[in-house]
Amino acid sequence: MDITASNRITLKDVLVGDVWLLSGQSNMETPMSRLRDKFPEVIAQAANPRIRQYEVPMAYTLQKPHTDVAGGKWIAADPQTVLQFSAVGYFFAKEINAKYQVPVGLIKDAVGGSPAEAWLSADALRQFPKYVQQADKYRDSAQVAGLRQREGAAVTSWYQRLYQADQGEARGQQKWSAAEYDASGWATMNVPGYWADQTPLGPVNGVVWYRKEVEVPAAMVGQPARLELGTLVDADSTYINGQLVGTTGYQYPPRKYEVKPGVLKAGKNVVVVRLISNGGRGGFTLDKNYQLRAGGQTLDLRGPWQYKLGATLPPTPGTTPFQFQPGALFNGMIAPVLPYALKGVLWYQGESNAGRPRITRP
After folding, report:
1. Cβ neighbours of residue 135 closer than 8 Å, sequence gap 6 or more
2. Per-residue burial over 137-155, b = 16 or more CB atoms within 10 Å of its CB, e = otherwise
3. pLDDT tens digit sequence for 97-148
C-alpha cells in the first residue's frame, strides 16, 4: 500500500480482516506467558501470521482525550511473540480464524485492576455526577504532578527505611540470605499460610525472612530447574544457596522462577525468601503450588519453614491511583483508537467494581 501526500509511505504485509478491541482489567491483560505450563502445545503451534496483536501502551489523562497512541506496532503470532498476546484474546482469535478463515487483528487495550468508570468518556460520565466530581479534583495537571511527586517520595522513603532497619541486610554481619547462615534459633511455621494466623508476630508490616533446607538428589543437579512459590503477599526476593533467583514487586503474579544449571547441588540446599508485607497480612497464599522441579523430579516445599522478623514499619504510605480516576483510561487509551474500524469489542472487567455494583443516578 502506497500513501502519497507531502511525503510517501509504503506499507508492506498488509492484511484485511476482522479487528477486535480487547479491554478491561487483568483478566484481559494477562498474557499467554502466564499460561505456558497449562497450554504448552498451543504456544508451540502458534505460528500464524494471520493472527496479530497491537498493544496500546498504558496512558491516562484527565485533561483531554489523546488523539494518538504513544507507540506500539502490529505483531504476528508465533511461539515466541504469542507469549505477549492477551490469553483471552489469542484463544478467541484462534477460534475465529479457524472457523471463518479470516485474518484477525487484536488491539490489546487493557489495564490490570482498572475500574469500569476509568474507561468511560466524558459524555458517559455525565450520568454519574459522583464520578464527575471525583475526576474534577484532578483536572489541574500541575497539582497532579506535585501530588504524584510527594506520594512517590513517601513510598521511596518507606522502602529505604525498611532496608536500613532490616536485620537480615545489616552491614557488618552475614546476610540472612547466605546459604551458610546459622538459622538454628529461628522459629517455624507451616507453608503455605500467613504469619498473622500462625505466629506471635500478628499482622505486622515490614520484612519477614523464611528459610527451608531441601535435600536435592544428584539427578536434579546440573540442569535447569524451576522454583514455584504460588503467590506471595506482598513482595519477595528469593534465593537458592545464596543466589538470587527471582524477585516480584507485588502479590498477584505467580512465582515461577527459572533456576540456572549450577545453582542446585546434590544434598542440602537452602531456599530463602525475603518477604515484604505492605499491609499487615503477609505470607504464602493457600491452595497454590510450592515446589522445586528439575530433571523430571519434583520436591514438595510445603510444610515447616523457619522464619524471623527482619524489620517492622507502619503500613506503606498510600498513593493516588490517577490512572483509575473516572475517564482517565478512556482519554489515554480508548480515545486514540476510536477512529479505527472494529468488528467488535471483547470486555473482561468487573472485579474492581464488585463491591459497588450500583451507582445512584440523579
Report:
1. 62, 125, 325, 326, 327, 328
2. ebeeeeebeeeeeeeeeee
3. 999 999 999 999 999 999 999 999 999 999 999 999 999 999 998 999 999 9
Report strand pairing: 8-10 vs 74-77. Answer: unpaired
Among the listed residues 320, 324, 214, the one whose alpha carbon sits nearest the alpha carbon of residue 267: 214
Q: Would you give the DSSP letter of residue 32?
A: G
CA nearest neighbour of 255 among 240, 270, 241: 240
Q: How many residues does the chain have?
A: 362
- CB 274 within 8 Å of CB 229: no
Average pLDDT, the chain: 95
**Is 66 within 8 Å of 117 (Cβ atoms)?**
no
Is the pLDDT at 38 greater than 90? The verdict is yes
Q: Cα(20)–Cα(312) distance, rounded to whole angstroms?
A: 48
Q: Which residues contact 329 (CB under 8 A, 6 or more apart)?
A: 60, 111, 114, 118, 119, 323
Instruction: State how far the Cα of 218 lies from the Cα of 284, in Å rounded to an integer.
Output: 28
Distance CA 362, CA 351 (A): 25
Helix, coil or strand: residue 30: coil
Phi and psi torsions of 79, nearest 5°: -60, -20
Q: Which residue has the cell 489541574?
A: 140
Cell 478463515 -> residue: 101
Interatomic CA distance for residues 122 and 132, integer angstroms = 8
Provide the grid cell at 128.
454519574
Q: Which amino acid is at 273?
A: V
Phi-psi label, residue 223: left if phi above 0, alpha if psi -120 to 50, beta otherwise: beta
C-alpha cell at 289: 503450588
Q: Cα(112)–Cα(191) distance, rounded to whole angstroms?
A: 28
